[in-house]
Write a structure and sequence with these properties.
398 residues, TIM Barrel, eight-stranded parallel beta sheet, 12 helices, 40% helix, binds flavin mononucleotide
């Protein structure tokens, strides 16, 4: 009987399997969810106090609920590698053939870790400080926008609920998140996100699309008012410059324009979407405080390398001069450690935390971050790494 089931399953295509799983999940009962401090050994010191609950939130329940709500935009695959959703932009996938998304995942998967157990590292330090703000883990939520047009959540989750889940969940896990700026999002949606930034005392980074200088500076002023920690411009969204609708101008930026953005505010300026050593050095030169090594989750240009493939040479040139974030395909704590060993100061996680927010709200996000934190701690012990701020590249077999 067992064999028959296995044979039937293996004869299905992967997409069919995922679809079947999603429909099955739709019929499943969802247990009530609540994660509280003290239930998880990974709960960070900085997390706010919450009421204890008898029913711990389970990962499988969060993913089941996420699948129910997100299907067919996201199948919530067991491995989020961009295969099932290739070409689905808008949606949750990678653009065109999906190669850039696949490359993110594959570039990390091919790196192996050297196991070392002859040492005295028992309780590694996972904390970092970002512009004066201490984080329990070097893991931030990436900006993910488009609750309706990307995630298909109309009538299931509002923009307000989504950003609250994402930013609030990060804070519960002792870290911070990023707020998105969709290319076609009206200003009132942006205001909703900044309200959440203000609600969490500015413990968030707000992103801005590479709109006209005037539009960007208007949004920088809004972020200053909300008390945001920093702002990022996802300059890689400029690919849509040629086909942007009226009133939705996005554009590549010159050095002069980038300098103007860095100089117009005291907020740290992060340039998101750096994939070459040259542009990383230019980001330093124009006064940016941080870069995100990123191909936008493979969503803007087909056939780019994975971010883990380009990170090391970038870090070798600009480490210490600018804060280096990286994102793309980071799914496990071991992936976080690999990125740190390649030279990142911190990582951003997109789709997995999106699923957490949709499937379990703030607690779903915190659960997923804490799971990654657990895995990171284990990986640090087993590679003899005492501190996330001093990860040696020689723990990698590249
Ligand atoms: C549905 C979706 C929406 C996104 N929206 C934005 C956005 O508005 N601004 C932005 O800078 N990046 C956006 N991104 C890219 C993410 O910030 C991040 O670079 C990417 O998701 C990281 O890859 P990962 O999802 O594999 O972790 C989006 C990604 C997804 C999947």
């Amino acid at each position: 009987m067992q064999d028959k089931t296995n044979n039937q399953e293996s004869s299905l295509t992967r997409r069919d399997f995922i679809k079947t799983a999603a429909i099955g999940a739709g019929a499943a009962a969802i247990v009530s969810m609540s994660l509280t401090e003290g239930q998880s050994q990974t709960q960070p010191a900085e997390a706010p106090k919450t009421q204890p609950s008898a029913t711990p939130l389970k990962l499988e329940d969060v993913l089941k609920k996420a699948r129910e709500k997100l299907y067919p935009r996201c199948r919530v695959c067991p491995e989020c590698d961009g295969r099932a959703c290739s070409g689905e932009v808008p949606g949750m996938g990678g653009i065109g053939s999906g190669k850039s998304f696949h490359n993110n995942y594959d570039s990390l998967a091919k790196i192996q870790l050297k196991m070392k157990t002859f040492h005295d590292v028992k309780k590694p330090d996972t904390s970092i400080t970002l512009w004066g703000h201490k984080l329990a883990v070097p893991i931030l939520s990436a900006a993910t926008g488009g609750v309706t047009y990307n995630m298909g959540l109309k009538g299931k989750m509002t923009d307000e609920e989504y950003i609250d889940a994402l930013l609030g969940g990060c804070i519960k896990a002792g870290t911070i998140g990023m707020a998105a700026d969709g290319i076609g999002d009206p200003l009132d949606i942006y205001e909703i996100r900044l309200k959440a930034v203000a609600k969490y005392n500015g413990k968030a980074i707000a992103t801005i699309k590479p709109k006209t200088q005037e539009e960007i500076i208007k949004r920088i002023r809004m972020i200053e008012k909300a008390g945001g920690l920093a702002f990022a411009v996802d300059i890689d969204s400029a690919g849509r410059a040629a086909r942007a609708l009226p009133g939705q101008t996005v554009e590549p930026k010159t050095m002069k324009q980038l300098k103007e953005l860095a100089q117009c505010t005291k907020l740290p300026f992060i340039i998101k979407g750096i994939m070459t050593v040259e542009e990383a050095e230019m980001a330093v030169e124009c006064g940016a405080a941080g870069i995100v090594v990123s191909n936008h989750g493979g969503r803007v240009l087909d056939h780019t390398p994975g971010s883990a493939d380009v990170l090391a040479p970038i870090a070798d040139k600009v480490k210490g001069k600018i804060v280096i974030f990286v994102d793309g395909g980071i799914r496990y704590g071991a992936d976080v450690l690999k990125m740190l060993a390649l030279g990142a100061d911190a990582v951003l996680v997109g789709r997995p935390l999106l699923r957490g927010a949709v499937g379990g709200g703030q607690d779903g996000v915190a659960l997923l971050i804490n799971k990654m934190k657990n895995e990171l701690v284990d990986s640090m012990v087993l590679t003899g790494t005492a501190d996330v701020k001093k990860v040696k590249r020689d723990i990698l077999i590249v």
